[in-house]
Amino acid sequence: MTMPDPRSPSAAAPPSPFQIVTSRGFTEWLATQRVGLAVSTYHLGAVLLLGLKPNGELSMFITPFDRAMGLCAHGSSLWVATKQQLWRLEDSLASHTADGYDRVYVPRIGHTTGDIDCHDVAVDASGRTIFVATRFNCLATLDDRLSFATYWRPPFISQLAPEDRCHLNGFALDSGTAKYATLVARSDVADGWRDHRNQGGLVLDITTNNIVAEGLSMPHSPRLHDGKLWLLNAGTGHLGFIDQTTGHFEPVTFLPGYARGLSFHGRSAIVGLSKPRREHAFRGLPLDQNLTEKGAVPRCGLQIVDLESGAVMHWARIEPPIEELYDIAVLPGVVRPKALSLTGPSLADQITLGDGDSFKVWSAAPAK
Asked: Strands 103-112 and 337-339, how do they pair?
């Protein structure tokens, strides 16, 4: 599937210079599960919204966001972490449909954080937005006056400084409360995590500061699902879970790429894969040997894994020039989503308001 160039603001569906190839069952899975997917790529600087066209073919809508990373779907909202802002997009359609789409995300609120290298984002049970300020080695929340308010930092981090000491990158909620965090290394010096990439990774309990698991390689995307703490041991290429009795990582399946971005739907895990960068931080990881032993070439794309068997049921491969993804959000009940860019005329021409008991949408988008 070839898409047009995303930088054309007048295009109905912003375009793309790359291709996406899927397994035969990928679109059928989207249809039967009735879900859409949001995928962030800081390599392109965009959010990809995947769904289905009326004829059953894959729909992909590409919306530019500078260095898009963490995503969080929460009710009708979609949070997007970018290079300097954290954006809350809202569905402007409610029960309406427009030009073939049943979800249109519009940027409503942007919080300027500065370049904090924002990674994972989530909304807790109280409605508070929590995010990882990786450059400052902490979890943070929004503040009306400050770039961010500190929520938690690892006990070994002696001060808040823009030094990315431990590469804190992800966290998981438990019953709506921030509970577990992944770090690449226990380091309190600038960029110190790079010296411990192979086995320095750990999971910390945010509420107690206790170590839940260690000896990991570049762990990312911790998530609680059906009572298990899942994560991606990206440095080895495995999806698995932490046995919280022993603290051991239990691999479930090997995936051909640098795994980052994990979401769940029912008994399926949706995993994002990237091609390892050529820089030092991504060289010499156990992943290299594992790929060689499997006779595999690293891929960029999505893998849908059956959690009971560990088998990859469906996949989507994203061809160059995109080589890196960061996060994935499942959009339940959504068939064909799109999002409006902060640039171009589309945002100015999408007006949503309530008039008494009625909900009105004015849009200049061309009919399809």
From this structure: parallel
Q: pLDDT (tens digit, 9 = 90+) per residue, 54-110?
A: 999 999 999 999 999 999 999 999 999 999 999 999 998 754 555 789 999 999 999
Contact 201, 185 (CB under 8 A): yes
Report yes or no: 137 and 189 within 8 Å, Cβ to Cβ.
no
> Which amino acid is residue 207, in one-letter code?
T
Cα–Cα distance for residue pair 76/333, rounded to 1 Å: 11
Distance CA 50, CA 1 (A): 12
**Global pTM value:** 0.90
Q: Could you report the per-residue pLDDT of 1-59, keeping only the tens digit for each?
A: 433 333 333 334 445 567 899 999 999 999 999 999 999 999 889 999 999 999 999 99
CA-wise closest residue to 208 among 181, 242, 248: 181
* Type of residue found at 119: H
Q: Are 168 and 156 in contact (CB under 8 A)?
A: no
Instruction: Give me the domains of the chain, ranges plus CATH numbers.
Output: 20-340 (2.120.10.30)
In three-state form (DSSP H/G/I as H, E/B as E, the rest C), the secondary structure along the chain is CECCCCCCCCCCCCCCCCEEEECCCHHHHHHHHCEEEEEEECCCCEEEEEEECCCCCEEEEEEECCCCCCEEEECCEEEEECCCEEEEEEECCCCCCECCECEEEEEEEEEECCCCCEEEEEECCCCCEEEEEHHHCEEEECCCCCCCEEEECCCCCCCCCCCCCCCEEEEEEECCEEEEEEECCCCCCCCHHHHHCCCCEEEEECCCCCEEEEEECCEEEEEEECCEEEEEECCCCEEEEEECCCCEEEEEEECCCEEEEEEEECCEEEEEEECCCCCHHHCCCHHHHHHHHHCCCCCCEEEEEECCCCCEEEEEEECCCCCCCCCEEEEECCCCEEECCCCCCCCCCEEEEEECCEEEEEECCCCC
In angstroms, the CA 223 to CA 53 distance is: 30
